[in-house]
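Q: Got a minute? One more chain.
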Amino acid sequence: MHKQIKILVVEDDNDINQLLCNIVNRNGYHAQPAFSGTEAMLYLNGQAWDMVLLDLMLPGKTGEEILAKLSEQNPEVPVIIISAKLEQQTKVEALRTGADDYITKPFDIEEVSARIDSHLRRTRMITEAPRIRELAHKDIMIDTEAKTVLVNGTEITVTAREYAILVLLLTSPKKVFTKANLFESVWNEEYHNDDNTINVHLSNLRSKLAKANPHEEYIETIWGMGYRLKT
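A: Always. Here it is, folded:
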């Protein structure tokens, strides 16, 4: 029997919070509402969560502060931002900080439901798939059981998405992955020319690798085709 999947729903508007909790419960998961950033932090510090649905404009701690904390302490937990903030810069910053998805209000119930399922399925596949214990390329070492990434002898912190991209590239080191390949393998949903999402995650990953070893290049862009590991 699978353990009950627990999702923290952080939204200060009572009606929207209830609607999101209903979507989560209808999908067969357990929803825990939190109505402020401060309340959310109490739940996050008190127990483990399988996913967080997070509004940005919250009383107490802001959504941005919670996201930064999650990215630092629990980068493996998928975070879906659900916000009325429409600015492209806000979306990009949230994705850069570690959010896995960004849905704008007003949202479509079926879309939210599908995205929750998609992100949980991807996380579960990464967790449960039988894989080689260690993957290596140049001075990158991935321990797929501990889910740790070492670069140049130093452990780097990566989000669940960045980890999935890196594992995918290291599993097929000679393959050129198109953006559609990457998106459909990592996000586990159909690609609709969503370049921005992939660009942001790849850019984050590259900068973390470069920070760990500025003298090495790990991922190369094959113009007009996609990406692969640089030999």
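A: Residues 109-128 form the longest helix (20 residues).
Q: Perfect, thanks.
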